[in-house]
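Worked example (supplementary).
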Amino acid sequence: MTRWDHFAIGCAILVAATASTLARADDQDVIDYRQHIMKTLEEQAAAISQILQQKAPAENFNIHVQILAITAATAQKAFEPKVLGGEAKADVWVRWPDFAKRLDALTAATADLASTAKAGGLAAAAPKVQTALNCKSCHEIYCVEKKK
Amino acid sequence: MTRWDHFAIGCAILVAATASTLARADDQDVIDYRQHIMKTLEEQAAAISQILQQKAPAENFNIHVQILAITAATAQKAFEPKVLGGEAKADVWVRWPDFAKRLDALTAATADLASTAKAGGLAAAAPKVQTALNCKSCHEIYCVEKKK
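After joint prediction of all chains, the assembly is encoded as:
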């Protein structure tokens, strides 16, 4: 089956009731979920990087930084369940206060980036990108980076 | 180099001036850019699917449908340059009016999904997910689907 077949099956299981607990989430679900979020951040960061290099439409810059900011705010909840695996090192939970603080900083910096872009566009926001998206500083500590 | 090294290099090239043309974008840049957008849609659709199956935090549902709606609106511009390659079939540009119409429909349906979720939460929006995210109907025509 293709990934879209999988998704179509997922779509078919429509749950009408809200559920605040994850009674049926197993460890792989937890890993999958946080990877969906981190991959979204990665794709959006890459799109922003392309725009800064004039290799993608500049008029989409504000939208991408907005998506980035909204997505960043979902990451901490996704990492709360202590489930080893994926690309996360055990240090995520061993040093949780530091990890959480760094995600808070990412959330704040990307929110600032998005509001700067909204007010002043690419020219105003571009100088803030490098600080907001200092991905490597966390990945070196907490991420088992896969070589491309 | 890891993908984050690549991104760090991208970040270092900060362009202060806005650029509405893509003078330096080559064909691979165009393909990369649209893939960043489609992968973001895919990751967010997968997160939404997990929530509908109670395998991810329901409280993030509204955020994911919002990201989905915002991202969907960027897709058409990304496909405008007629550059064959990636997972896009030539029919994207041969039958552009149909393709564009379908992207407009996706944009409208995901925007409606996001506003329904904002007003009535997961319970109100869940029944609309399958219609809004009928990804397969387009992918079967326009996408060279890679088997997982």
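Two points are worth noting when inspecting this output. Residues 5-21 of chain B have pLDDT under 50 and may be disordered. The longest helix of chain B spans residues 96-132.
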